[in-house]
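note to self — DONT lose this again. spent like an hour looking for the file last time. sequence + predicted structure for the chain T wanted, 332 res
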Amino acid sequence: MSGPIIAFCMGDPAGVGPEVTAKTLLDTATYQSCRPFIVGDPKVMGDINQVLRSNLEFRLIRDVDEACFLPSTVDVLCPPDLDVRNVRWGALDPAMGQAAAVCLRTAFELAMGGRVQGIISAPLNKEAFHRAGYPHRDELSYAAELTHSPETCIMGVMRSIWTVAVTEHVPFREILNAIRKERVLWHILKMNDVLLCTGLARPRVAVAALNVHGGEGGLFGREEIDEIAPAIQAARERGIDVQGPVPADAVFVRALAGLSDGVVCMYHDQANIARKLQPRSESATVFAGLPVPCGTTAHGTAFDIAGRGVADPGSMQAALRYTAQLAAGQSR
């Protein structure tokens, strides 16, 4: 077998993470793009496997070097400090938040050591994560601290269109102060780098405006004039094919019509409303700026359907597709 070694973190054991992980590894196409193994608890994986009534087998390993990467028998690396007992599907439990964090930490330790080339994180419940004592706003900030990565961002993918937001999980009133030329330029450059890793020879990047109608020449705000347009010009001077500022109500219409490969948005919902109007099975999230690409689903733990065997693995499969693509691109 060939392809990048990808660590699958099982996510919150009380959610759909173990299920969509198992379903993704049941698909033999997974093994055509990578060499996967699970960081998690074999019993948790075995329990959901019984619900699915699949013939998948799980084999406990203590080190990545022991992995065989066989479709019929999935390797499971169980961290020594992983404590998963009394899993109640669909219940918010700080112990499960801690379990998800331990799996992520182990995967990124392997990445820091060059043992894996990519990570797939099944959904983590942020409330359970916080109740377990982790002060980080999300799993990306946790991973950034673990790996000493000062410049990271969340990228979304929908129908092959990549998105990134200059501001992410911040109060809306703080967005204006964060829209600065340097930050906008950094996100344009990062978008271009990621698109190059996917194999595009000359990516086309669109940058969304912040204000209504793109600011109307300063009538509705000067962010486009003072910060966004100068960043676009600086990117063009570096040879990047970038357009904008494009009014936010038109930028995704143009992208989905095939006029751009990536969209740099100014804030979280500007990107995510467009993403979530697309089929969930074609959407995924990728964390960039870490030692290795890390993909996750475009949905959460879905406690309402956990343990029933009805979760759609499409977003998990999409996360794997894009993460494996980036991991292979970085190794070239």
